[in-house]
Amino acid sequence: MNELSIDEVLAEVAVLVKPHFGKGRVPDYIPQLATVPGTKFGMAVRTVDGGEHAIGDADEGFSVQSITKVLSLGLALNRIGDEVWTRVGKEPSGTPFNHLSLLEAEGGFPRNPFINAGALAVTDILLDKVKDPAALVRGFAGFLADGPVAIDEAVAASELDNAWQNRAIANLMRGKGTVRHDPEAVVAAYSRQCALTMSCRQLARAFLPLAAGGFSPLVQETIFPERLTRRLNALLLTCGIYDSVGSFAYRVGLPAKSGVGGGVVAVVPGKATVAVWSPELDRFGTSVVGARALEAFSQLTNCSVL
Ligand SMILES: NC(=O)CC[C@H](N)C(=O)O
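That is the input. Now the predicted structure with glutamine docked in place:
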């Protein structure tokens, strides 16, 4: 149906997104993130058969933030299996990613692993197994991306200095028993994990197992069992874009995860991963230009799973 090559599609996407710069806002609740120019734009595609395509600032590292929640969940599920689901749910939250009232109403049981409460529970679970969950996630990301990945300590410190809402979430959960370690240690580990710096190219590589039935064609290893891979994609499709996940599925039709650093990674099952970065966010915390770029990519390549 589509005659364009992936490089031609990326070039067209870069033109189509131009009118959408300036519509969102670079976040300032983590002050260090506010220093990044809103004009940045990069996009990378990695296909399961080894093709790699990139445009714009695709090789510039940025703070991947909540995108790391997919990696920490994958690690927790690989290590302790379904017991994870006794501490966190699988339903969309319909509320902002750092919301408290639903969490309190539901006895400290987070709706899903991709809102902050759920990710804090996953960090708490990983703390049972390792001293430094952020280093574990960093090592996993680097292994999957086939190259070193760093934690930006200035971003981590900037988040921790201002993590009052996440502290409230972790303390509420500690009171209910869904967090079991010292809430301060959990928030510190979570903030460092979120401060992972990766480029679009690295993200597209790292998420490739989700497009290839759990196998990484890049590092030639099975990373997740096939059934778990399907389930991770189901969670991404239903919970990966917070409380705008419905309209994102409507527009893009791909499992995806966004982060407040302006990154979005999407999975085209059986075919490819697509990572995009542009720092200006909508009011839900997803990159405006990133979501537009994925919408255009999905339409131009006809790759929606729906
Ligand atoms: N949506 C996000 O990327 C949020 C992650 C960020 N570290 C926070 O906890 O607020």
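The beta strands are 42-47, 52-56, 62-63, 150-151, 196-198, 215-216, 221-222, 256-258, 263-268, 272-277.
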